[in-house]
């Protein structure tokens, strides 16, 4: 299979995961430094998110994606301020992982695997990859690895959240971001490579039947 890039190179997931963890670390650091003040934690989280956003924009990331990340941090901070519980800063993260697991499962079942949609968009293929049965099968199998990463996070976050262990939630957020994303990218890439035939030209070159030729046959 003549495909030089890995999923990690195509999606740049490891760096994004580390960047996304910094506001959570900032929240707990501010919360602890000022006598478990949720206001201090919220301010520290938002300031961290603004710093990460500025850095991403300087590196050429799309403004829309950067602003969405900043918006989610602000929402998480507002939730914690509204409830008065520090652990609720991580509630949005818990819910989003549960929703993501469900969304990825549904996408596999209806044969529109999200991994294919993401990679196809990055490669500018739109949905052309879906007309390649081998790629469709490979992306479906690879998507199950992504389902498992979300399930792992929910399994770890939920008991910590229920126990109100804010520091442990931040540690879990950090530990289950960069390392877990890196593992997910590596394993799903291995699954895709093993699922494609040996003579398949790779992710950039879907093998699509010519509809005109197919209709004439």
UniProtKB/TrEMBL annotation:
Question: Per UniProt, which keywords does this protein have?
Answer: Membrane, Transmembrane, Transmembrane helix
Kindly name one Pfam family recorded for this protein.
DUF3159
Q: Which residues cross the membrane?
A: 38-57, 64-82, 102-123, 144-164, 170-192
**Name the record gives this protein:** DUF3159 domain-containing protein
């Amino acid at each position: 299979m003549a495909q030089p890039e890995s999923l990690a190179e195509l999606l740049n997931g490891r760096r994004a995961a580390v960047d996304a963890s910094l506001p959570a670390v900032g929240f707990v650091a501010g919360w602890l430094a000022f006598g478990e003040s949720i206001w201090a934690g919220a301010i520290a989280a938002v300031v961290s998110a603004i710093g990460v956003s500025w850095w991403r924009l300087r590196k050429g990331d799309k403004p829309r994606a950067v602003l969405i990340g900043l918006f989610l941090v602000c929402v998480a901070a507002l939730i914690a301020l509204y409830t008065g519980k520090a652990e609720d800063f991580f509630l949005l993260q818990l819910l989003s992982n549960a929703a993501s697991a469900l969304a990825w499962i549904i996408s596999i079942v209806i044969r529109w695997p999200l991994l294919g949609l993401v990679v196809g968009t990055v490669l500018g293929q739109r949905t052309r990859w879906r007309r390649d049965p081998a790629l469709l099968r490979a992306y479906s199998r690879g998507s199950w690895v992504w389902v498992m990463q979300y399930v792992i996070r929910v399994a770890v976050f939920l008991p910590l959240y229920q126990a109100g262990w804010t520091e442990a939630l931040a540690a879990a957020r950090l530990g289950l971001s960069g390392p877990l994303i890196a593992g997910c990218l590596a394993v799903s890439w291995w699954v895709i490579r093993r699922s494609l035939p040996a003579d398949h030209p790779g992710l950039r070159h879907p093998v699509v039947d010519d509809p005109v030729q197919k209709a004439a046959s």
